[in-house]
Amino acid sequence: MDHAETVRISLTIMWQGMLGLFIITIIMAWLTATIIKSCKRPEKPSE
Amino acid sequence: MDFLLDGIRAFTWQQAVMFAVGFTLIWLAIKKQCEPMLLLPMGFGAILVNIPFSGALNQVLPGVGETQGAIQWLFEVGIESSEILPLLLFIGIGAMIDFSPLFQRPIYFVFAAAAHFGIFATIVLACVLGFDLRDAAAIGIIGAADGPTTILVAQVLQSKYMGAIAVTAYSYMALVPIIQPAVIYLLTSRDERRIRMEPTKDSDIPRTVRILFPIAVTIVVGLISPAAVSLIGFLMFGNLIRECGVLESLSRTAQNELTNLITLLLGIIIAFTMKADQFVTRDTIMILGLGLFAFICDTAAGLLFAKFLNLFLRKKINPMIGATGISAFPMSARVIHKLAMKEDPGNILIMQAVSANVAGQIASVAASGLVLSLVLKYLQ
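Output (structure tokens, whole complex):
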């Protein structure tokens, strides 16, 4: 692997890695919010 | 009586440099209290392995053959062959983390993604500077701001710079209170640093959520980035032990005895990679510079991402929250909280900062898994 090829691959790793990381964190945020929503007990109406 | 002088005669200037490095690490640990649990064993280990003919390393003795050295044996068994020591440490770290603040603000996960840009930017820069892809990726992981992850990735990629990478990672983690404020002052105005954020109502999180969360994280991260399964799995296993409510004793053991024991061994074992011939090179200086670049890029990317979001938001986010998306927990959250208080004594951002900071713990592991997957794909 020559130098130019290594740099090109590292740039590919950069955009693919950041995209992957954003996808993972967005899924995690959505999943966490969904779990919390579905596990929360309905609030008792105040008397 | 010549044998009494054998060690002194074999002493090289590179070993003298490593002694100085060892003393510096011990000084930083004791005097400045910078990551003392790791830097002190590493500093002492650096001296141990750089004494000529050190019995802590394997040696070939005339008439006897090869003898085992304790530090080398521990390195080969605990790190080289299985990476088991950093992984076991993850159980303890998982058992120590309370994700409650993140449950109140799950969207803060995105700051953690942005604040790991430093990893990838550093990989590119390292490649530009002439490191091969394997070493560049190992160096980039310094930007994860997570010691065990850095050691593990460097080992999986079989980087020859593991010692320099570990020392750099732990040193800059200790320097977060200096690096982050400098970048923040450079990239934000006083008005931005004074942005107040509404406190969210902290409600009780049901136990079911606390139990389901580590399992869900493991499955999601594992499916997307299989190379991260052992990392995220051990971290979340520790958290499950903590949150399940029926393993109090195991949780306490993981948080205290297990973590202390592994930390004690990890520091001195890593010193195996700090032998003078491998460490005293121009590359080590470059790795120190790249590590600093990674931490600066992490902080800057988190900040700028928060500023970018503010373009679209009615209720503005204090951009400093973006900088807490790195994995240096809880130091980064504490630094941002103090900075916010300094600018405006009534501005309490601690819960928001902790939310992004614990998300950073998960993101650093996920990012490492992604780097491993991608680099191994291109190395095929």
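DSSP finds 21 helices and two strands in chain B.
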